[in-house]
Amino acid sequence: MAGQRCMALTTAILVGETQKWIPDIVERSKKFRTGAGWKDGVDMGPVISRASKERCLSLIASAKKEGAKVLLDGSDLVVPGFENGFFVGPTVISGVKMHMQCYKEEIFGPVLLLMEVDTLDEAIEIFNKNPYGNGAAIFTANGAAARKFLNEVENGHIGINVPVPIPIPQFSFTGSRGSFRGDLNYYGKAGLHFYTQWKTITQNWSQSLLDVKSQMSFPQHK
Q1: Domains along the chain?
Q2: Which family does the UniProt entry place this protein in (predicted)?
Q3: Labelling 64: which of 97, 105, 124, 222 has CA 20 to 30 A away?
């Protein structure tokens, strides 16, 4: 999909010692093969249009200009036989800050942003200061850290050791802040309520079938 999914994880926040994973992330990303999507062995196809490619390249360039480090740059990728295709290679950018354009705008391409913090509290603060609130995930072997994350992060979809859940009809779509419009979620119970005509039924059954009397007043509990 080349990152073209609304629930794709576009930003990774590396906490404490996990920052040592950055070289491994880059090496793993280099192994993704970009090309014509129908060919065997291809991991990622092109982005959907020329405008989409130009947007990706523009945001990668802005990251360089604003001081981030582009550790793996797929801007100049050319796929043999498809020289005019809309291909962007795997790109990894570290040192990303909240004020940067590449962070504030959705890239919607094969670009992974890396932010580095010292504590989980700092990471949670980044999540909650973002104007959008669709999904967030934590990968940890620490149950206390996972509980703190799910209780304090204000995003609507939370994953614990799994990527952000894709909202399917059985789920409630629980995006928050800028990731939500209207007053009802359209999946899950809220969607069923919206499309359902409700009925209220009040019944009163006598203890005995022989005890049948007309009663015009409201039932009284005795």
Answers
A1: 11-118 (3.40.309.10)
A2: Belongs to the aldehyde dehydrogenase family.
A3: 124
